[in-house]
Here is the input.
Amino acid sequence: MLIVKKFGGSSVADKEKIFNVAKRCIEDYQKGNDIVIVLSAMGKTTDHLLEQARDINPKASKREVDMLLTTGEQISVALMAMAINALGVPAVSLNAFQVAMHTTSAYGNARLKRIDTDRIKNELENKRIVIVTGFQGINKYDDYTTLGRGGSDTTAVALAAALHADKCEIYTDVDGVYTADPRIVKNAKKLNEITYGEMLELASLGAGVLHNRSVEMAKKYGVQLVVRSSLNNSEGTVVKEEINMEKMLVSGVASDKNTARIAVIGLEDQPGVAFKLFNHLARHNVNVDIILQSVGRDGTKDISFTVKEDDLDEAVAILERHRATSLKCQKIDVERDVAKVSIVGAGMMTNAGVAAKMFEALYDVGVNIKMISTSEIRVTVLIDEVHVEKAMNAVHDKFLLS
Amino acid sequence: MLIVKKFGGSSVADKEKIFNVAKRCIEDYQKGNDIVIVLSAMGKTTDHLLEQARDINPKASKREVDMLLTTGEQISVALMAMAINALGVPAVSLNAFQVAMHTTSAYGNARLKRIDTDRIKNELENKRIVIVTGFQGINKYDDYTTLGRGGSDTTAVALAAALHADKCEIYTDVDGVYTADPRIVKNAKKLNEITYGEMLELASLGAGVLHNRSVEMAKKYGVQLVVRSSLNNSEGTVVKEEINMEKMLVSGVASDKNTARIAVIGLEDQPGVAFKLFNHLARHNVNVDIILQSVGRDGTKDISFTVKEDDLDEAVAILERHRATSLKCQKIDVERDVAKVSIVGAGMMTNAGVAAKMFEALYDVGVNIKMISTSEIRVTVLIDEVHVEKAMNAVHDKFLLS
Here is the structure.
């Protein structure tokens, strides 16, 4: 069996942890498996390098930042190869140049295009454990690129796809994917299986065990993903296309506090107003989430929507800039202390009344719903941030207490 | 003019020093020159990385050690590019893969074979300052290699040769090449010019401003080398083939305390004895320096020779191992506290009596000579280590006080 295993920076933060990972991988190697390991930079290495860069040039070019950051993973993989060798097993470390990990040109946020597998296959045939730098690639100019947030997960999945690996194990500091964040919801349970679609909805809702791009890629190429703990040997959660057993109605509850609501009040009730508003925001790369438009009245209408709290100030500035000209409105209102709570489940598609049951759970504990958004396998509500814990527990107990 | 400038690790050890180097290079750039900068790893980075490696695996493979160490220069060049950009000048950093710096396969001690110049030339045409990682290369397996001691000097000279640069400036913490070490000889003077041959003899005698390999390469390809201070703007010392002015008789005095004498006493006076002795040492990579063989007497002879003090214990162990079998002798004597003092000068070739003048200087201050070795442009004597300072000053004053 060919297994790709990905470990994050905290799993290789020091000598002891490096040897733990080494031993764990050697166990599977000695059972006769081919092993490819993908590593992030050790501990806080990437942050320290970024600090150095900012100290020298706060506006450092992304090309040079990537040149700097890619040293982090190279240190991890070299040390891991030394650790595995010290335990008597042949291993070799490879960086993005050596593998030939081709990406788009966008420094700091590149996308993988093509991975050459010759070198890795040769090393595996020579019975070596192959250790590959995550997060990094090279573009058509032969410059280093990095893959942005969650990049090492993406590297691991892409390698698994390119090598036709039997599975791709993502090691984290939790046991797997839970029905809700165990720190918030006391009754949260670990899921043994989840579909790609559910995982995608959960990831985009801030339950982020896995980065969206890696799940999307796993789904596209049919890579069997497993989310496992780097601290113990429990089985983890398998992410795949179809779940064998009957589907659970709801497989998880997630919350996201990094959200804020903007209400644009008293817009002219004319065609094209919503287009203009969201076009201004899109041109500045501000992503909008839930949108709610009131019915027109007295020749005016209101449009409310949520953005990431990080983007709030920029979004408001953009709207104020256009308020006098293209965007005539009476008032721009802002609410910071709001949060999204969502239920996710492939079972929803064929089960009516799921949303209603969620609203009932919230009503039971006195939580007011400010906005609602739904997809085929998700229902999201916007509520006051102070009520998140109460709301999640209520919804979780309603759907997931067995 | 195309200038290659090399700065060592101490010249880029922190933010302030990085900006000093950046400003200095920008000055020459703004005079209309094309600038290629070669950098070592910052400060003690290489030592720290080696410590990490040894901590994880004291017998780490050289391949993985090189994979680890090459991150050091990559960090330097990326930060330097950011610093130069911060000062408003375009710059780009390149590592051994991006330049395509081909070497032999020997990890830890590779030799440069061929440097592709396309990328660097393109960047220079785009009016960028190009910053290249010193000390590192790639071999035919697409693995990183390092060039061993003084490797960044070699990178700089090789780049200057490949690019047909007008000069190659090696920046150090001294003003240039001196007639003797100013810390030992109070009257030492800076040389404005020196020949490759003299520089080679001085480098091999422990006056080591430049590494031998870089001087050899500069000589072979006719690269004009300049040794300059990274701390001030003085002109430094030019190293070249022929010196225009009349040659000085002696251009420098050097000493080397890392030396020890072994005397093998009472060897059988037969053909092949010396061959056997030095063959044993050569097979274990122990280099021998000055050799002195006594005239045979009573059917036995003595052979004395010097080795590096670091190699002494190994050399003695090798000899003891073969003493009973192939190497019959009465006694093996060792002297640790000896040192070499040498005079170097292209003028010696055509001037008789130089050695005699040196011996006279030593006799005047009561220093006993234990061994003598000469080449066309060098005279070396072995003396007691305690007399080094006295001997160097006496010899220096005899030849070099103008």
Remarks:
- Chain B has three domains: 2-172, 258-336, 339-400.
- The longest strand of chain B covers residues 252-268.
- The interface with chain A takes residues 15, 18-19, 49, 52-53, 55-57, 59-61, 63-65, 67-68, 70-71, 74-75, 77-79, 81-83, 85-86, 92-93, 95, 97-98, 119, 142-143 of chain B (CB under 8 Å).
- The mean pLDDT of chain B is 89.
